Amino acid sequence: MENSEGVKIESTVVTEEPLISALDIALFVVIITVAYFWYFKRDKQSSSSEKKPYTIQPSSLSSIEQTSNSSFIKKLKSTGRSLVVFYGSQTGTAEEFAGRIAKEGARYKMKGMVADPEECDMADLVEMKEIQKSSAIFCIATYGEGDPTDNAMDFYEWLQNGDADLEGLNYAVFGLGNKTYEHYNEIAIYIDQRLEELGATRVHEIGLGDDDANIEDDFVSWKEKLWESVCSHYGIEETGEESNIRQYKLVDCSEVLPERIFSGEISRLKSYENQRFPFDVKNPYLSKIAVNRELHKSGDRSCMHIESDIDGSKMRYDTGDHVAVYPKNSSELVDKIGELLNADLDAVFSLLNTDEESSKKHPFPCPCTYRTALTYYLDITSNPRTHIMKELIEYASDPKDQEKLKLMASSTPEGKKEFHEWILRDNRNIVHILEDLPSVKPDLDHLCELLPRLQCRYYSISSSPKVYPKSIHITAVLVNYTTPTNRVNKGVATNLLAQLIPTNDELPQPTIPIYIRRSQFRLPPKSQTPIIMIGPGTGLAPFRGFIQERDYARKEGREIGEMVLYFGCRKKDEDFIYENELQEYVANGTLTKLHLAFSRDQPEKKYVTHLLEQNADELWNIIGEKSGHLYVCGDARSMAKDVHSIIVKVVMEKGQMTSSQALNYVKKMEQQKRYSADVWS
User: Which residues are recorded as binding FAD (predicted)?
Assistant: First the structure.
């Protein structure tokens, strides 16, 4: 045999009594084993009792404490609350509305709390009847093509699959939707009906907010009637107490060490310096911009082709997915707020929840500087809602400014008209309001509490991972427009992207935080299935990925089905994006037909919808006779609606069906994922 150093030992040498006997070795092994298990068990117990590293949740009232096993009921009982407001939110509006309802509950002797259904055990709704005069309010947005928001998905599935007895639960539902979409407020309507089916009592009729019109007005009108119904149901009266009490208190953090101060991270401190997979909405990936080039050939508008590098990130995407981009506000607007309020933007501060029982300790990552909060965390470019007008009243020293704010904060017809004209029609943001009402000087920390969170922007990915596995392509029009007050408003994300020009030298490349959001906008499973794609303007984006993927399959020797593309823009020589690519796909046979509509190249405007009507036979041949798939991407307000009407008309005429039969046929196509839309308003 050999020892550890490889020196041979003859067996005849070992004739003396060994220094360590077999029994000694056995005892030694037992002692080591016991010590090992004792040490690691103790370590595990101690680690579980230690506090987790300090993190700040970026979204609204998130997790109910672990000690309560996600039981919002236990929290309601332990804190003497009788009102819980759940939200299903994708962009933050439903969350904001939920907070306003919970806050107003105090006026009706109903202490409230806001809760994220994703972080709660929603089966505890059956126990709401144990709390006297209790109510559960649901502010629920419908997202995508009639889908629940990400944080409401589990609750939605629980309602669908469960049969809980909700007798004794008093509830009301407000839905957030957009009438330009087919599935207007579908999720809120379902939740409202399903809760009643399970035995719950509807305290107030469902409210349906339309973001295409004035969702703020819809919400305020519904909310006022909600409280009337609540008072009637419980036999209570309004206390008359104002509800504009500060939710957060200011904490001076001037002594906090620099390494403990947030500088734009979404959730985890120093997450951009120390990136950790997986990447998602709370943990975006800091991607390098590899390509940023102009797609328009001429004219005063701009459309960018951007390639975001994901090499080494372990991120994967599918053709048709969306990429979320985290923007930041322009330094010009941020500096203007500091100037108008005479504030030190580089002062370090924190906002701490005055409700010690709340699991949402801060409205955004704290501590940070005011400059960081206004740049990365707060929305300073959208139109403020009426509750912000109300909170600003106390800061107006000029009676005229004060009266104007009071009027816009009111729910009178005159107040609603003034708010609609002065805020919405004239497109004023918080900076414009402070400029035009010069006596209004709110405390900057209070303003930071009032403003909504800056949300990420979503773009249809315009590439295929089969061809570009290490990069994500974005096709985006630069947003700049002049308002009725002669101010130039700039799109937060697109203007940031326009500045991110990669360098050709050794300087660090520009970066931007991103993550991938999964989509249901998918190519058919079989590559030989024929498809029709309708995508004017940047609606072409996902179809560029579709075509790349089919072209890849063709080059591999696989059979591919017909691909028909309808594309439109203003002028062929101005904004025909990806022209050379598309013509090449036509030449090599990947793209069977390319139908083009240039709306301003002739006296009479021509759109893709006109071409669809002209090609009714081709349309029916693919979706009717060959059971192909049809895809629409672009404007939901007019184009997508017009396309839907044309499809129904073609099915009725070419399929020899009645109007109701044609509608049912198209509905079935949607259910079978043979008719898919990726649209925006």
Answer: 457-460, 475-477, 481, 491-494, 680
Fold of 531-679: Rossmann fold (3.40.50)
**Is 605 marked as binding a ligand?**
yes
**Beta strands 629-635; 675-680: pairing state:** parallel
181 is in an annotated binding site: yes
Overall fold of domain 72-234: Rossmann fold (3.40.50)
Q: State the span(s) of the chain assigned CATH 2.40.30.10.
A: 269-327+456-519
**Mean local confidence (pLDDT), 385-391:** 94
Residue 182 is labelled as binding a ligand:
yes
Q: Does domain 328-454 have CATH number 3.40.50.150?
A: no
Distances (CA, A) of 514 to 106, 284, 390, 459: 40, 5, 35, 11
- What pLDDT was estimated at residue 366? 98
Q: Is the Cα torsion angle 658, 660, 666, 668 positive or negative in sign?
A: negative
Q: Write out pLDDT tens, residues 551-604.
A: 999 999 999 999 999 999 999 999 999 999 999 999 999 999 999 999 999 999
Do 432 and 486 touch, CB atoms closer than 8 A? no
For the chain, give percent helix, strand, coil, nearest 5: 40, 20, 40
637 is in an annotated binding site: no
Spatial contact of 651 and 666, defined as CB atoms under 8 Å apart: yes
What is the distance between the alpha carbons of residues 590 and 430, in angstroms, rounded to a whole number? 50
Largest CA distance in the chain: 112
Residue range 1-42, pLDDT digits in tens: 333 333 333 332 333 334 445 445 555 555 555 454 444 433
CA 577 to chain centre: 28
| Active-site residue list | 460, 633, 678, 680
**Domain 269-327+456-519: top CATH class:** mainly beta
pTM of the model: 0.85
